Structure formats: structure tokens, C-alpha cells
Amino acid sequence: MEKRLLFITFVLLVFGLVVLSSAGIIDGDKKFGDSYYYLKKQLLYGVLPGLLLFFLFSKVDYRFWKKVSFIILFGSLLLMIFVFVPDIGIGLKGASRWVSIAGWSFQPAEILKLSLVIYLAAWFGGRDERAKNWAYSSAPFFVVLSFVGLLLAMQPDVGTLVVVVLTALGVYFAAGSSLKHLFAVVAIFVIAVAGLIFIEPYRFNRIKTFLDPSLDPRGISYQLNQSLIAIGSGGLFGNGYNESTQKWGFLPEVVNDSIFAIVVEELGFVGAIVLIGLFIYLCYILISIAKLTSDRFGRLLVVGMSTWIVGQVFINIAAVSGLVPLTGIPLPFVSHGGTAIITLLTGLGIVSNIARKI
């Protein structure tokens, strides 16, 4: 399983870099005077350090992370608080989601995803039959998740909040927790997200756009409509690699959360199915590793990684396709983002060590 995990990880990385190279060629030249700016940055500050950490963490006994899980989570939460500190936190488009330390900028929320998976796997890993006990297991889980959710809502980053909660619930369910408690947490989460949507006009506009894409096509519905145009023009086999017209300034966030639309426009329905198939194969490998792992902590950690990746892939593709409201969630392995790819590869490195011990 370890070799299969390495293979699919490498294939997805190559696929992502090839797509990013094409998607960012116009925007990179326009903003930075370098057509391959996004490709170079992704390689130097994302893929290469990420692969280094993948192989490094694959050599470290995964049970070590159980011992330091609380320290890791505490450090991640501290970094999340730093986004609100003047001269350290960086604001972008009305949101505070970045931190700059010693000239290095990164997104703490991405690190939090992995930290929370490790912590919850360690927490529930030591609770076995007591996982159904509200006071001993579920209540502390809800408190931790609420604090994490509060920090994400304050940034604000509702898209990441949804991914984090889905991931946490995946670990919670796999741990054998009470379904009654699970449904209670889901209900509270839905109410909280609904409240966050209605108190911010731009979030409410995304709901209106989702319900009626024809509403204000040059305004609040612009990104979704341009995304649907890209997807619709791709047809079965696409317009050809590097032949997208939507990336010429029409489609917003072309290298970030809208990049799947470029995949379909250039590579068609066939290319989209290939990419989705690669993600499904990765999910299959992760589930297989989880099933074969006898250690409860290791099994829950792999489940958390699987839920995180699959959940984020589904939300991104569904949003770009108009099946759910736009969230701003990037597509794993494909969207531009150094912190995201480094954290993802680090987590898969830990999973690789788990697979090695099966």
C-alpha cells in the first residue's frame, strides 16, 4: 500500500502542476511579468518542500505524533490567533487569513487541518468503548471544535470551516461515537453556518447566485457563470491543452478555487473524469490502509486524512459546477497554494509510515 500511495501522490502532483502551468500562464504574465510565475512558485515553495517533508515524515514512527498531538494543536491555534495581530497577520480581500513571520507568509488554517486530524485521532484513539460517553468524549470534542470554528469564523473563512467540521465529524463517526451526539453536533453546525451566511451580505449573495445563476450575471453571479461557460465549452474532449479562453481575464480565481473549470474546458469531460478517478483511487488506498491498520490511532488518522481530501475535492468541484454555493475552497494537488500542498504532503507522509507498518 505504501508504494501505491507514493505512486498516486506523484501522479496527482504532476497532473496538478501541468494544469496550473496552463491555467496561470495569462494571469502570471499580466500581474508578475512571468507566464510561469505560479508554476515556479508552486514548485519552489510548495511541491519541493512538501515532498521533502513527505519523505521525512514517512520515516518517523507515526505513534510519535500521538504523544505531541496537543502541542501541535496548541501551536496551530496560536498561529490562527496571530492572523489578527497587527504587522504579523495579513489581510486580503477583507479577510485575515495569512501570517508573515521572518518574511515567510503562510496560511495557518491549512496547518490547522492536519493538526486537528492528529489531535482528534489521538483523543479518540485512547477512548475506545468510552467514545459514546458525552461527558468524557463528545463534550470535549464539541468544545475544541467550537473554539476552532470561532477562530475560522472570525477570519472569516467559512469554506475552510466547513471542511474542518466535515473532517472532524469523519473522525468522530469512525471512532464509534453515538449517532445521537453526531446528529446533535451536525444540527448545531448547520444552524451556526446559516447564521454566518445571513449576517454577511456577500455570503448571502452566494446563496442567491447558487439558487439563480442568471441573477446579476455581471455582478454577484459573474464567477459562477464564467465557470459554467468554461465547463460547458469543454465538451467531451476539451478545447486542447493551453487552449482555454476563459483564463484570458474572464474567469476569476483561475489558479485557485476555479481551476477545475479550466481542467474541463481544456481537457473536457474525459479529463475531468480522469482527475476525479485519480482522487477516487487515492481515497480507495487511504480506506484500505485504514482497514488494514490494527492501531486505533493510526486508523483514525488515516480516516481523518481521507475525509479531509475527499470532502475538499467534492466541495470544490460541486461549487465550480454550480451544485453547491461557492466557498472559495481550493482543489487539492491542483490549485495554487504553498501552505496547502506542503500540509497535504506532510499528512500523506505520516500515512505512508502507517502503511509501512501494516
- What's the number of extended β-strand segments? 3
Rg calculated over all Cα atoms: 20 Å
Biggest pleated sheet:
3 strands, antiparallel
Domain count: the total is: 1
* Distance separating the two termini: 9 Å
User: What's the helix count?
Assistant: 14
Strand order of the largest sheet: 1-2-3
What would you call the structural class? mainly alpha
What is the share of helical residues? 55-70%
- Portion in strands: under 5%
Assembly state: single chain
Q: Uncertain runs with pLDDT below 50, 5 residues or more? A: none
- Compute the average pLDDT: 88
User: Shape, please?
Assistant: globular
Query: What is the H/E string?
Result: HHHHHEEEHHHHHHHHH
How would you describe this protein?
By secondary structure, this protein is mainly α. It has one domain (2-356). The chain has 14 helices and 3 strands. The chain has helices spanning 2-23, 25-32, 37-59, 64-67, 69-82, 108-125, 134-154, 158-174, 179-199, 201-211, 222-234, 259-292, 296-320, 338-356, and strands at 89-92, 95-101, 104-106. Strand 2 and strand 3 form a beta hairpin.
Could you write a compact summary of the structure shown?
The chain is built from 14 helices and 3 strands. The chain has helices at residues 2-23, 25-32, 37-59, 64-67, 69-82, 108-125, 134-154, 158-174, 179-199, 201-211, 222-234, 259-292, 296-320, 338-356, and strands at 89-92, 95-101, 104-106. Helix 1 packs antiparallel against helix 3 (37-59).
SSE topology:
Layout: H1 2-23, H2 25-32, H3 37-59, H4 64-67, H5 69-82, E1 89-92, E2 95-101, E3 104-106, H6 108-125, H7 134-154, H8 158-174, H9 179-199, H10 201-211, H11 222-234, H12 259-292, H13 296-320, H14 338-356
Antiparallel strand pairs: 1-2, 2-3
Helix pairs in contact: 1-3, 1-12, 1-14, 3-14, 5-6, 6-8, 6-13, 6-14, 7-8, 8-9, 8-13, 9-10, 11-12, 12-13, 13-14
GO biological process, one term: peptidoglycan biosynthetic process
InterPro entries: FtsW (IPR013437), FtsW/RodA (IPR001182)
Main location: membrane
